[in-house]
Amino acid sequence: MPGVAIAPAPRGRLFRKYVALFVAVVCTALAAKELLDGWFSFQEQKALLGRIQHEQARAAAMRIGQFVKELQGQLGWATQFPWSANSADDWQFDAERLLRQVEAITELRQLDAEGREQFCNFRFSVCPRGGTPTDFSHDPAFTEAVAHGVYFGPVRFERGSEPFMVVAMRGRRREHGVIVAQVNLKFIWDVVTDIKVGIAGRAFVVDPHGRLIAHPEIDLVLRNTDMSHLAQVRAALEEPSQKPPGALADEDAEPQVALDIKGQRVLSVHAPVVPLGWRVFVELPLNEAYASIYQSLLRSGVIFFAALALAAFAGLYLARRMVIPIRALRDGAARIGQGDLTQRIAIETGDELQELGNQFNSMAGLLQESRATLESKVRERTHQLELANSAKSRFLAVASHDLRQPLHALGLFVAQLRTTTTAAERHRIVERIDTAVAMMNELFKALLDISRLDAGALTANITEFPVAKLLEPVQTTFAGTAKEAGLDFRVIPNDAWVRSDFVLLEQILFNLVSNAVRYVARGGVLVGCRKRGQDLRIEIWDTGPGIPDDQRQKIFGEFYRLDDHQRDRRGLGLGLAIVDRLCRLLHHSIELSSEVGRGSRFSIIVPMAVATAKAAAPPAPAVGALNLAAKKLIVVIDDDALALDAMDGLLRSWGCRVVAARSAAEALIDLADTECPPDLVISDFLLSDQCTGIQAIEQVRAAFGVPIPAFLVSGDISPVLQQEAQHSGYHLLHKPVDPMQLRTMLNRLLKKKGLVGASR
Ligand code: ADP
Questions:
Q1: Residue 573 Cα, ligand 1 centroid: separation in angstroms?
Q2: DSSP one-letter string for 253-285
Q3: What number is the average pLDDT over the span 413-433?
Q4: What are the residues whose beta carbons fall under 8 Å from the beta carbon of 128, sequence distance 6 or more?
């Protein structure tokens, strides 16, 4: 079965939509993730770096503070005693010990309460002795120490590069004087240079005025650089070095982004050296601080673009997988819609789309099947119509042939009649003419029966009646004929009741019995009944020639006659066709068993009825033999001159008074002088002046104001006319009307009129 060709690379709107949607969804999710990741890791990195730098700054500040505190402690110890000239050796001993213990102290001076130098001890040089003691009473080291207990002098650089500071402390009492120490601050320098902040990070220390005390780049310190112009330094110096309780701890403070001395952006944190009011700054160039963040952002960017490419590929792949079956469905449905029902949609996705495709396929299959069925039905129907058409043609050919025979004979007899002079000869010819007319009548009657049955114009009037009522007329009708032919004819009486249409079943029986009587040459005919369950089989046995097997169906067709029967016994070939149609109308089965050379048996299976006391109405007595029409005034209306003349002549031959007219108006003119209303009106159904026979009869009735008996005749056998006549309440006889049939109708209507008149 052909499948739908799947396009290798679909490029439709749906495809583009799916790809774009997929890529957009994946990229949005990825971008959001990467941005959030980047932002949070930036913040975390910044906080982490801040914490590390703070820790370093705080540790450095603590070490410097510790150094200063120790120094203070050692000096404080030395100021415990009031030194005098005679204790010089003791002081020198203590000073030596102090210089040994605190390596940073390079010079020591002991001042008395007036600020005069009492003793001195220098680590690298000899302290001058004797002479006038040096006066330090105006030196800030003395004055500040006396005033505040301790003094830290400014940082100086000696011997080219080393930083020094003067620290002075006063004793507990005034007489204890002041001890002044020159301290080498190289230790602080070491602390600062020891701090490693990343690769290019720096730590430095500034004094309370913002002047640089320690920096890994010694040049800056030697140049006595003022750092207070830097925003971070200015901000730090403005802060109180001792924070109030509850204030933000330094380690919690955000690292500050600022410019360093070289104008480079740095991440800066600081910590105070509490006793000195100095600040330790730890700074890391921003590009180094954020290098890992930049790297992670770069990584994220690479991942993002890789994911973008992957999403695009995945989108293409998925959209292709999704769109291909949809396109296959669309194309397949379109082809099925265009009538290509052999089309099948091949989708193997194993999901709802495949189910949909399968449903389309089964729908197409059903359509294909029903179309094939329809086509075969149409073919069969056409064949039937062709058969019916050829049967109709055959029917017409045979009918016209069978009609032509008596017509031909009729013409010859009429010609003979013109020249014949003797009464005996005329009598003989008239009798032959009668026979020819009877044959034609019989044929017309049979044709009429067939056409009424085919047109559905006959309806069954089902009643229950004893079968004996059916068998009696069979006996009376055929017994004489059979006897004349030398046959043994027997009808076996039966008391069963049947349910059927009396008249139609009688016609079936008459046709079958007449056939049997006609075709039996020797022997006899037997009519009998057998009860079979709920049915009664009415059987007609004969000892005729029998019917070969292959002919048993065919003899029920129209004009079908067996060839080997004697030609003079042949009938019209319509009897069994009528029997077959009547049986179908009454729903009675007909069976035939026959043996060639021995005879045949036709059986009609009729449903039985329960016998009731009330016998079915006996068939109407034959009234054809009476002549109640003599001397009666009868109006005949027919627009066909020949038919009108024939009817006029026949009625007059029966002693009737006739008014023959072509229309109701013409009839009324002829009746103008008549005082009594006519006894009966016979009208053709279809009159030429667009008037129906029903209207013509009504006009005559209206003119006399009495319901004159009337009936219609017509050559048109269509069921419509039949129904119209029935509705109007008039009987309708079909042309050619048999004279006996005509007389029976006349007698029946006139008798009824007489009864009505008598009862009045
Ligand atoms: P027909 O008017 O010729 O009898 P039917 O339709 O009644 O037409 O019968 C058709 C043919 O069937 C007859 O021509 C005759 O050959 C055959 N046929 C009918 N009844 C009998 C029978 N009882 N025995 C033998 N042949 C019969």
A1: 7
A2: SPPEEEE-TTS-EEEEEEEEETTTTEEEEEEEE
A3: 85
A4: 120
Residues with CB under 6 A from ligand 1: 515-516, 519, 542, 544-545, 547, 555, 560-562, 565, 570-577, 600
Distance CA 84, CA 82 (A): 7
Whether this prediction's pTM lies above 0.70 is answered by: no
Q: Count how many Cα atoms sit within 13 Å of the Cα of residue 563 in the half-sphere of its side chain.
A: 0
The token pair at 376 is 């075969």
Instruction: Count the neighbouring beta carbons within 10 Å of the beta carbon of residue 115.
Output: 21
Distance CA 238, CA 427 (A): 166
Given a contact cutoff of 8 angstroms between Cβ atoms, the answer to whether 497 and 467 are in contact is: yes
Each residue of 352-377: pLDDT tens digit?
888 888 888 888 888 888 988 999 99
| b/e burial code for range 330-361 (CB count within 10 A of at least 16 → b) | ebbbebbeeeebebbbbbeeeeebbebbeebb
Residue type for position 475: Q
Of 519, 540, 551, the residue with max ligand 1 atoms within 8 A of its CB, to mutate for a pocket test, comes to 519
The best mutation among 439, 561, 578, 583 to test binding of ligand 1, ranked by most ligand atoms within 8 Å of the C-beta, falls on 561
CA distance 723 to 15: 70
Strands (E), 488-645: 488-491, 497-500, 524-532, 535-542, 589-595, 599-609, 633-637
Long-range contacts, 237-244 (Cβ 8 Å, 24+): 237/206, 237/208, 237/209, 237/210, 237/279, 241/272, 241/274, 241/277, 242/274
Count of CB atoms within 10 A of residue 429's CB? 17
Ligand 1 center from residue 515 Cα (angstroms): 6
Hey, which of 122-131, 431-440, 532-541 has the most confident mean pLDDT? 532-541
Q: Give the Å distance between the CA of 555 and the centre of ligand 1.
A: 7
Closest atom, ligand 1, to C-alpha of 577: 6
Atom of ligand 1 nearest to the CA of 520: 24
- Minimum CA distance residue for ligand 1 atom 4: 571
Q: Ligand 1 centre from 404 Cα, in Å?
A: 21
Ligand 1, atom 7: closest residue by C-alpha: 575
Determine the Cα–Cα distance for residues 698 and 747; give it in Å rounded to an integer. 21
Q: What CA–CA distance (Å, rounded) separates 206 from 211? A: 5
CA of 598 to the centre of ligand 1 (A): 15
Q: 564 with 545: CB under 8 angstroms?
A: yes
Phi/psi of residue 470, each to 5°?
Answer: -85, -35
Reduce the DSSP state of residue 129 to 3 states and report it: coil
Mean local confidence (pLDDT), 290-294: 78
pLDDT digits (tens, 9 = 90+) for 464-512: 999 999 999 999 989 999 999 999 999 999 999 999 999 899 999 999 9
Give the per-residue pLDDT at 487. 94
